[in-house]
Design brief:
The complex is a heterodimer of chains A (335) and B (284).
Chain A (H helix, E strand, L loop, with lengths): L3 E16 L2 E16 L3 E5 L6 H8 L7 E12 L2 E4 L5 H10 L1 E4 L13 H13 L4 H14 L16 H12 L6 E5 L7 H18 L2 E5 L3 H7 L2 E6 L2 E7 H6 L4 H8 L48 E4 L2 E3 L14
Parallel strand pairs in A: 3-8, 3-9, 6-7, 7-8
Antiparallel strand pairs in A: 1-2, 1-4, 4-5, 9-10, 10-12, 11-12
Helix pairs in contact in A: 3-4, 5-6
Chain B lengths: L1 H7 L2 H18 L35 H37 L1 H16 L2 H12 L5 H12 L1 H15 L2 H8 L4 H37 L10 H10 L8 H29 L1 H8 L3
The chains are: A alpha/beta (335), B mainly alpha (284).
């Protein structure tokens, strides 16, 4: 088995809100065990509001109230050994960001400071890691990096609003990869783009990954992006990972009914029958149904589904599912 | 140079700059004054404008032209002290309250709100009465600075509150930018037009308040400022006696000063905001 670079252990992150004196708990990340390997692109897929972005926040250790980690741990594999993120101090976390773990935001209008030129943003970010006395070095580094990624160097002199959406997204990817991080975390990096530009951006991400030989965690609800980019995919539903497998297996033999719906809803060439979507709507993370959270929408629901959450069943080496239809779930637990 | 050329393309900036430059030059003339501004009776009283006394002389026996140069200089000094000191207070309090939030925000905004709700003018008048004897230019500037920061601290706080929630803050933090660097490098450029505009507004406010206090006779009246000049002109009934050159000199100078400061503030804040600059230049 390859080296595991980023690992979560029974991670639970909840939004603890105080609504008119009543406390309300939104279980956005609910018992998640991830093991993300070195040199792979790991996709996390799921509907809006299933906790994907919250999971990302906990992975980059940007947990601010009302979000709280109520259980479990996140581990980074550093050259010196495995480190529990919760034990890191603020300054250590600050240093790790961009150098060890970098974040690619969705390249919308506001992810770059609108009143500074791209090169100033680059310089600021570089200097906060290399020290403030290297203004010229920082600029050269940014310029070489931009050229390396095949972007025109003159964008460095532009303001964010002068760039197109696709260009802005590429700039944010270039920004995240400046210092050659070990892990890159992408939060829906292709969502606001049209399909042609999406392809270019996915290609850029893949190029970066194969150059740096690092790990990318890609969160998006767009299965088309996943099939193009990801090596392995975790399907997330209501704050839990319900199925995890290599991309071919997720698309070829999906086992969880939810995954099956997701895959079957994708359009195919030559097939004109209407696509079936998942019935119902996603549950509120504040009031999860008992048992398997998917049971109210599941067409194959059994009695046990309404009472207990199934554990993971290991179908083969790279494929695990948490569903009573598949197995009892004696190989590790999900609930 | 390119910066100045761009700025001068705006007629408001060009005009305001020229007027302000003339006024500053006028104020600098005070260093070459043949008379001591604190001494009365150096020239004959109540002379009409003539070749010798360009703007005439006043009833205290002072040359109006030369006393006006001192008045503009002193008023500008008060305004600059008040403006800059209150900007420093407003920016630091606004940024800490906005970025830190929580208890910091509540405590700092308690002070600024207290200053906002008390009747400022009455308190300044009272303090000016108490301090009158030692109210030099610097102490008056500091007094006005102390009362002039509250609105702008709230303004800057609200700007920071909004910036804090924007995505680029997340981008910066998750790229390892520390708090101080984030606030100074990322937020400062955003708030600079605001700070500059409030600085100039605050200077105009300080000059206005200085004139008000002087007309009420609450300043040290032997120091020439735009306000004390008006005070003497009014108390000697310059309007009734038809000595318009006396009363109009400080009025016209202050009007020019206000207009220049206002246009400068509008034009510079538009220039510093790249979004409106793009619209103005017409580039994409």
């Amino acid at each position: 088995m390859e080296e595991i670079i980023l690992r979560t252990e029974d991670l639970q992150a909840h939004y603890i809100l105080d609504v008119y004196g009543k406390s309300k708990v939104v279980k956005a990340v609910n018992h998640v065990d991830l093991a993300i390997r070195k040199n792979e692109i790991y996709g996390i897929a799921g509907e809006s509001g299933c906790g994907k972005s919250t999971l990302l926040k906990t992975l980059v250790a940007a947990v601010d109230p009302p979000l709280r980690i109520v259980g479990g741990k996140v581990f980074y594999r550093m050259p010196t050994g495995e480190v529990d993120v919760a034990t890191l101090g603020a300054e250590e976390k600050r240093r790790l960001r961009l150098e060890y773990i970098a974040y690619v935001p969705q390249g919308s209008m506001s992810v770059l400071n609108p009143v500074t030129k791209i090169k100033e943003t680059y310089q600021d970010f570089i200097e906060s890691h290399l020290g403030a006395h290297m203004k010229q070095d920082a600029f050269d580094l940014a310029r070489n990096h931009i050229i390396e990624l095949g972007l025109p160097p003159k964008i460095l002199d532009a303001y964010p609003h002068q760039l197109s959406g696709g260009m802005r997204q590429r700039v944010t990817i270039a920004l995240a990869t400046l210092l050659g991080p070990t892990i890159i975390v992408g939060d829906e990096p292709t969502t606001a783009l049209d399909v042609v530009v999406q392809r270019g951006v996915v290609q850029l991400l893949k190029n970066v990954q194969s150059n740096l030989q690092n790990t990318i965690v890609l969160v998006t609800h767009d299965m088309g992006v996943h099939v193009n980019a990801a090596d392995r995919i975790g399907i997330m539903y209501a704050g839990k990972i319900v199925e995890e497998a290599t991309t071919e297996k997720i698309f070829g033999q999906p086992e969880h009914p939810y995954t099956q719906y997701l895959i079957n809803s994708l359009p195919k060439f030559g097939d004109k029958t209407p696509r079936e979507s998942v019935p119902g709507s996603p549950p509120s993370l504040a009031e999860l149904p008992p048992g398997c959270p998917f049971h109210p929408r599941c067409p194959l629901v059994k009695d046990i589904c309404k009472e207990t959450m199934p554990g993971f069943t290991q179908i083969d080496r790279d494929h695990k599912v948490a569903c009573w239809l598949v197995g009892e779930g004696d190989h590790g637990k999900a609930a | 140079m390119k910066l100045l050329r761009d700025l001068f393309r705006d007629y408001r900036f060009a005009l305001a700059f020229v007027v302000l430059a003339l006024l500053v030059g006028f104020a600098l003339l005070s260093f070459f004054s043949p008379y001591d501004p604190t001494v009365w009776g150096e020239v004959p009283r109540d002379m009409r404008p003539s070749a010798e006394y360009w703007l005439g002389t006043d009833s205290n026996g002072q040359d109006i032209f030369w006393i006006a140069t001192f008045a503009v200089r002193n008023s500008l000094i008060i305004a600059l002290i008040a403006g800059i000191v209150s900007r420093i207070i407003a920016v630091s309090i606004g940024m800490v309250a906005g970025y830190k939030g929580g208890t910091w925000d509540r405590v700092l905004m308690f002070f600024s709100d207290s200053l906002l709700v008390v009747p400022l003018f009455l308190i300044i008048v009272m303090l000016a009465m108490l301090l009158r004897g030692n109210l030099s230019l610097v102490t008056l500037g500091l007094l006005l600075a102390f009362f002039g920061w509250a609105w702008d601290a709230r303004l800057i706080r609200s700007e920071i509150l909004s910036l804090r929630e924007r995505d680029f803050t997340q981008t910066a933090i998750l790229s390892g930018t520390g708090t101080a660097r984030l606030v100074i490098n990322e937020y400062m450029p955003y708030t600079t037009p605001l700070i500059f505009a409030t600085l100039i507004n605050n200077m105009a406010w300080a000059i206005g308040l200085e004139i008000t206090l002087a007309i009420l006779g609450l300043l040290e009246l032997s120091t020439p400022t735009l306000g004390t000049m008006l005070y003497w002109a009014i108390s000697y009934q310059a309007i009734l006696l038809g000595r318009y050159y006396w009363v109009l000199t400080p009025i016209i100078l202050s009007v020019l000063l206000f207009i220049a400061l206002y246009w400068l503030s509008v034009s510079v804040s538009e220039y510093l905001d790249p979004r409106t600059r793009i619209q103005r230049v017409g580039a994409a």
